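Board notes, transcribed. Complex of a protein with flavin-adenine dinucleotide.
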Amino acid sequence: MSPRNTYDVAVVGAGMVGAALALTLACEGFDVAVVEPRAPAPWRVEDEVDLRVVALAPSSAQLFGRLDVWKSIVAARACAYRRMRVWDALAPGKLDFDAADNGAAALGWIVENRLIQHVLWQALQNDGRIALHCPAKVVATETSADRRTLALDDGASVSARLVVAADGADSALRSMAGIATRDRDYAQRAIVAHVATERANESTAWQRFLPGGTLAFLPLADGRSSIVWSVPNAEAERLLTLDDARFCAELGAAFDFRLGTITATTPRAAFPLRMRVAERYLAPRLALIGDAAHVVHPLAGQGVNLGLRDVAELAAVLIAARSVKRDFAAESTLRQFERRRRSDNALSAHSFDAIQRVFASAAIPMAGLRGAALAVVDRIAPLKRLFADHAAGR
Ligand SMILES: Cc1cc2nc3c(=O)[nH]c(=O)nc-3n(C[C@H](O)[C@H](O)[C@H](O)COP(=O)(O)OP(=O)(O)OC[C@H]3O[C@@H](n4cnc5c(N)ncnc54)[C@H](O)[C@@H]3O)c2cc1C
């Protein structure tokens, strides 16, 4: 579609969350514009597996299925994980989940961020109902009674009945709309790498709580694992400067050699960790979704899954309002979205924060508590099902 300038909805930011919303709304017959500063780097099967991967919950896979992109993602490269093993370095408790316990084929899938972004971007480009403004950035915004207008850095302007900010953790649009955030800097970094182990990954996602942080091993389709090792900043500095042999030895010990020794690693990268929650999700003719609204600790692998649940909820609210001929971007309509999603996202952000605090402590009374907590959840079937359902997005 060639760019014009008035739309039903303008989505700012075409990361995984913004792109999914634009496609969902276009499928439902809304006029959609997308503003994105950078097209994602193309994904090619012959390239090394992207260092950034996400654990996608079944609810996210279902959403991608409805957008007709899930088949392409799975056909390209995705690894289903059927089991999850959680245990603690300081206490004997453990938590085991098995897809077979619920009659499911998988608990979730590990997929490269770049692959998801590439497939969604292709779908955006091929969707004749979506106007793509790329490369372009929003430099100013103003509202009138029934629309919001965005001034772009290429001189164009886009006006829509609803603008959705999906421009990530440092959302410029959120700042322009005067929405404050509450932040907590964990003073930790997540080290990521792909590693080969003596034994293949057993289609299992592993998570070990360590004094001062967490270590996840997520299965890749080629038998290796993608690690996310969250450690205090100074420790991250140290681990990043180790040579590969020393790093593999320390990683193997931190993982309790569950898959034998670590035999090889890719280069490592590190990401600073913080919690950031927007104080509100709405401004006149504007809604926040995804990391623009909430950034959570990655220990539960839920960030993008929460963002995709925002997509499903916002789309449902807009579609319902339009079907009864109400203004779909009226504040009363958007409040329903905010009420439902803000409570779920805040609960998740604060639960991960609490888990992080308890398990980051090496104090002896805490160690007792953490072991007992894992053991209790593992033994009480309804409680365990609750955890599994939440992780699956049900
Ligand atoms: C180490 C680590 C591991 C993680 N593991 C998991 C996991 O296993 N499972 C999970 O669910 N989540 C995980 N996450 C979280 C997940 O990566 C994020 O929640 C997710 O990427 C957020 O997607 P988004 O589309 O909201 O934002 P982003 O991916 O940040 O996308 C924002 C988009 O907006 C664009 N943009 C930026 N500025 C502007 C602007 N001014 N105007 C227009 N567009 C703009 C950007 O170019 C980008 O395309 C992890 C995070 C980390 C750090």
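The pocket of flavin-adenine dinucleotide is lined by residues 12-18, 35-38, 54-55, 137-138, 166-168, 172, 190, 192, 228, 271, 290-291, 298, 301-305, 307 (CB under 6 Å). The radius of gyration is 21 Å.
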